[in-house]
Amino acid sequence: MRPIVEVEALCVQALAKRGKDRIPLIQDVSFQIHPGEMLALVGESGSGKSVTAGAVLGLLPNALHIGSGSLRFQGEDVLAWTEKKRRGLLGSQIGCVFQDYQGSFTPFRKIGKQLTEMIRTHHSLSKATAKDLALEWLDQVALPAERVYDSYPFQLSGGQRQRTALAAAMMLRPALVVADEPTTALDVLTGERVLDLLAELQMQVGCAVLLISHDLRHVMKRADTVAVMKDGRIVECEATEMIRRRASHPYTQTLLHARPLLTDLDAGLDWENEEVVSSERHEGVDGVESLADREPAV
Ligand SMILES: Nc1ncnc2c1ncn2[C@@H]1O[C@H](COP(=O)(O)OP(=O)(O)OP(=O)(O)O)[C@@H](O)[C@H]1O
């Protein structure tokens, strides 16, 4: 089966402010993601995960540049994409979820308007049909669809925003979803639910997922493959089960030894009950926090 993403010996450099020096940010990074596979890229802050994701999306800032290596999406050379091509693929063939909702949504425009625009940018559908599709996906991610559709992003809780971002990333049934630290702004339990939802939607849509996280404990339950990144290099890339059984790199072992925290949580919490408490606290009894009843500030 042809991989969705093929990254081969990729090096990304930053241009130094003065002189012609180039500072290496990631070096010799290689991995593949196949249809339906979830690959988690994990590592500490600054290890190069977001730079790698930016390269895969063809979204590196101007100050960064690909020094060498190759990048393919569905067999096509990402480095040869024109801006028009990249914009056409983002949203339709490649969905994105970011840690900060402002990466996914414009703050002062209603969710519904943003979702229908995303749909209509890529498909010639009537407004009414696009609205139906958006509502269907808000419903799929267990949100009160009509109310969220009519809300501004800042009127939703963090968990609701990430559920909405997942709906937006998945609704056009992309081949790849890149989720860059989607749970960072959330409490542990809400983050777990968002990752569960990501895995559920992935199964439904059949897409590949590149999940970026600094926290190995968050990804071990769902990812098929784990790539561990340190100082700009992938030090280990294996099936999750192999990582669990016999991680070979000392850094991976260090990350694994940080896991008991989650194991404790798993053992000690009633997840079902906690979800209810959590959603009451964050989302109000009908699923939308009371802020949603306020008039927007603008
Ligand atoms: N636009 C940029 N210009 C110069 N250096 C950059 C730029 N973006 C990132 N870097 C550097 O590249 C390295 C990798 O950064 P990156 O954001 O990929 O790390 P990360 O693993 O995603 O970290 P975090 O988990 O904190 O998001 C860091 O040293 C960072 O300072």
Describe this structure in words.
By secondary structure, the protein is an alpha/beta fold. The protein has a single domain, classed as Rossmann fold (3-Layer(aba) Sandwich). It has 13 helices and ten strands. Helix 5 (127-140) packs across helix 7 (158-170). The radius of gyration is 20 Å and the shape is globular. Residues 262-298 have low confidence and may be disordered. Adenosine-5'-triphosphate binds at residues 14, 25, 43, 45-51, 61, 63-64, 214. It is a peripheral membrane protein. This is ABC transporter ATP-binding protein. It is found in: Cell membrane. Residues 10-256 form the ABC transporter domain.
Strand order across the largest sheet: 6-7-8-3-9-10
Number of domains: 1
CATH architecture: 3-Layer(aba) Sandwich
Strand/helix succession: EEEHEEHEHHHHHEHEHEEHHHH
Main sheet: strands, sense, barrel: 6 strands, mixed
The low-pLDDT segments are 262-298
The CATH topology assignment is Rossmann fold
Beta-strand share of residues: 15-25%
Indicate the mean pLDDT: 85
